[in-house]
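Model it.
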Amino acid sequence: MLRFYLKLVCIGLLVTAFLSSCQKDENVTDPKANSSAPADTSQKLADLTAPGNFLVSKGTLKIKLPDTIYTFDASLDSIAFVNMNIDGKEYYGVTAINKAHTVSFGISSVGAPIAEMASNIAGCQLLLQPADKLSSEFTLTKNTSPQDFGTMLLDKYNQDTVLAKGTFHTYLAKDPKKNTPAIVEGSFELRVR
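Modeled.
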């Protein structure tokens, strides 16, 4: 049952990233973006967009695998910060897809986003689909308990113009059956304006 929810969270994150990327590719603008923003930047950013979910307009997400580093830049790629509630449990996470749609990443954590508080990773997936090669999927290892999936730490959340800034580490495997996970580290600094 837990694995079902983990897959559901990952799928939700990837769908959000896909929809966000389509919007960015079509240059769709949010009608609220043209309204005047309050002068007090300490006001919650959630007041300016849809509750809990944000298409990031500035910032980066970096993912470091043992042999490769992937960097998503919100000025080119689509990055979203999402909050979800599934069966009364809260999750938050970051999703991204590059402009070429060849690399997508989603990571979620248990609980509500709170600055300076570490939380356990609930789901994570990295999909690679190079134009001239077979696609690859990296997912959480299946032979560990959820507490061993890694952690996410938000240094800042909804402070001034910073939507979310933080780091994470988790363990992904290309073939979960072999249980040969690689440590994945990442960092993000996301802004919505």
